[in-house]
Design goal:
Strand content: under 5%
Distance between the termini: 37 Å
Largest sheet: none
Order of helices and strands: HHHHHH
Radius of gyration: 15 Å
Number of domains: 1
């Protein structure tokens, strides 16, 4: 079972090098209820922190700290991390549930 998991993670890391795939991966995680920071952390870690840091033109230690669950990144830092994926923070209306309550 370990082999299959490693193969899957290796393939995911390769797939995440494609900016369109990475963008859709992040958006899918957000749709599933992940926070922006959690979605970025999962994507960046699977892509490779050092490789991503080069793309984002940031020290890898800063990227690593930014995706740590205990860290509270600023909006500016989140924007900087989203930029290589062609994404940005934005506001949108809340989705309504069937009974008229916000999601």
């Amino acid at each position: 079972m370990t082999r299959r998991s490693r193969d899957w993670n290796e393939q995911l890391a390769k797939d995440l090098r494609d900016p369109e795939f990475a963008r859709e991966f992040i958006l899918a995680l957000l749709d599933e209820g992940f926070t922006v920071q959690q979605a970025l952390a999962k994507t960046i870690r699977n892509h490779g922190i050092k490789e991503f840091a080069r793309k984002a033109k940031m020290p890898s230690s800063n990227v690593s700290r930014a995706v740590r669950q205990s860290y509270n990144p600023s909006q500016r830092l989140l924007e900087r991390l989203l930029k290589p994926f062609g994404l940005r923070l934005t506001a949108a209306p809340e989705k309504k549930r069937g009974n008229g309550q916000a999601a």
